[in-house]
Amino acid sequence: MFKRIMIASETSPAAQKMLYCLNGLKKLGAKECIIMKCFNPDEISVEISNFIIDILREDLEKQKAVMVSQGYSVETRLVSGCMRTELNCMAEREECSLVVAAAPDQSMLGEYLFGGTAHDVIHYAVKPVLLLRVPVGQDEECADPAEAFKALEQCDLTEHILYATDFSDNAWRAFEYVVKMVESGVKKVTIVHVQDMVKINPHLISRVAEFNEIDAARLQELKKILMQKGCADVDIHLLYGIPAVEILQLIRERKATMTVMGSQGRGFVNEFFLGSVSQNVARHSSSSVLLVPALR
């Protein structure tokens, strides 16, 4: 499923912890990885550029050693340019099936991906993007750093998948990844659809029962597909409210370990300028988030 992955590397404690959590991706077929670190030559003076580059290369080798210790075949890339553009280009050129970055509240890069620039990795991703959030407390009880990292290796990203859908074409594409996860052994999935109160109130409020009947049938069909593929525990939720708020609350309540959703919903133009549901979920989720881009 995710045989070859691209890791957006940073020099930060969060990025180091993230690498140990990637042991769990091997359940989804991950065997090879490229660790990419990017620097902007315009931000480095000529006098210290060689010194900085040597530090970045040394850090890449340390991160490579971590991934090799987990059984990955590893390559490294040190690239000059802008991360948000270079990352996508290299992922496509190297035929990677997944891009991985640390979650936004845990790293500078994560915040950068959600910054003011419209042309960022999330909006223009050509490959699925996993924003990985290290589980809270997973390593905090271990005084020994080696034991702490060992504890992180045990975190299971696929223990409980939450799939959020608005039944758009992009959401159906994301569902195909959930199906593949189930085929790879995932046994617990929660499916959620939220009736958007902003779009329904006040003119369509009289049709909520009708909408619920249609969408409940859709959810049941998705559940049936996953159970036929071997998923023993499939839970469905049909909610009413503000989609991002309801999804985030359900993630916390159900203690999902990974949330899967399309990066673009039905209202792409509006979401692009106003802040999409997927972007808000990815930024504030207590779980890791896999964003699946639309076909372009």
Automatic annotation (TrEMBL):
<dbReference type="Pfam" id="PF00582">
    <property type="entry name" value="Usp"/>
</dbReference>
<feature type="domain" description="UspA">
    <location>
        <begin position="159"/>
        <end position="293"/>
    </location>
</feature>
<comment type="similarity">
    <text>Belongs to the universal stress protein A family.</text>
</comment>
<feature type="domain" description="UspA">
    <location>
        <begin position="1"/>
        <end position="133"/>
    </location>
</feature>
<protein>
    <submittedName>
        <fullName>Nucleotide-binding universal stress protein, UspA family</fullName>
    </submittedName>
</protein>
<dbReference type="InterPro" id="IPR006016">
    <property type="entry name" value="UspA"/>
</dbReference>
<dbReference type="InterPro" id="IPR006015">
    <property type="entry name" value="Universal_stress_UspA"/>
</dbReference>
<dbReference type="InterPro" id="IPR014729">
    <property type="entry name" value="Rossmann-like_a/b/a_fold"/>
</dbReference>
